[in-house]
Amino acid sequence: MPPPTLIVALDSSQTRSALDLRERLDGLVDFFKVGSELFTSGGPQVVEALGRSGARVFLDLKFHDIPNTVGRAVAAACRLGVSLVDVHASGGQAMMIAAAESARLASPKGNRPLVLGVTVLTHLADEDLPQLGIGNASREQVVRLARLAHRSGLDGVVASAAEVAAVREATGDELAVLVPGVRPGWASQAHDQARIATPAEAARAGARYIVVGRAITTQKDPRAAALRILEELESASASSSL
């Protein structure tokens, strides 16, 4: 199994610093996450600038609204040329169908982004779910939403490494699984995630993509940190294939 693709999270409010980091990682990492903070401050222009630099973009805005609104938002993301875009799976089947259909219609040449369904946010632990009216443990809820995303025509889901194997089994290994909350053992342990994993754990679980932020972006040498993570992913994937 090939190693997961590393996506570096540009969690910054400064467009210039985000683009500077992209330049520092040039030739090593070409996939970057633009989330709510950077998109709110930099707007579509930061996505376009990354695209002009040759980078691929995961637009992580977690759309969650009525089907028509989400469909239009996904179509707008397609026009920006992003490679991945996500919606909340808890928005329901009609909303996810609208997202998938909009991606297809907005990309008539077939070069469309993958649409992912966000299952259970990785800062939530099992004990948090009853407050949201969810009686399932996180694993069961992730699988339930992954099956719904699959039936709705989405390309993949966002889930923690602990649920990757269950998602792949439940959906016939037809969904790409993106794992956020990934943090290598050598990085600072200060974080706001509950369901976390190391790069090696995510690779062995079968993740298609992993997102790493502060373990790279806050280092004195982000390039060296990214290289170390890539080597860990490669090693874990090679050993799991034996």
Can you describe this structure in just a few lines?
This protein has 242 residues and is α/β, with parallel strands linked by helices.
Describe this entry's structure for a reader.
The structure is a single chain. The protein is of the alpha/beta class and 242 residues long. It has one domain: Aldolase class I (TIM Barrel), CATH 3.20.20. Helices cover 45% and strands 16% of the residues. It has nine helices and eight strands. An eight-stranded parallel barrel has the order 1-2-3-4-5-6-7-8, surrounded by six helices.
CATH topology: TIM Barrel
Computed over alpha carbons, the radius of gyration is 17 Å
CATH architecture level-2 label: Alpha-Beta Barrel
**CATH class category label:** Alpha Beta
Query: What does the main sheet amount to?
Result: 8 strands, parallel, barrel
Low-confidence stretches: none
What kind of oligomer do you see? Answer: single chain
Structural class call reads alpha/beta
Instruction: Return the domain count.
Output: 1
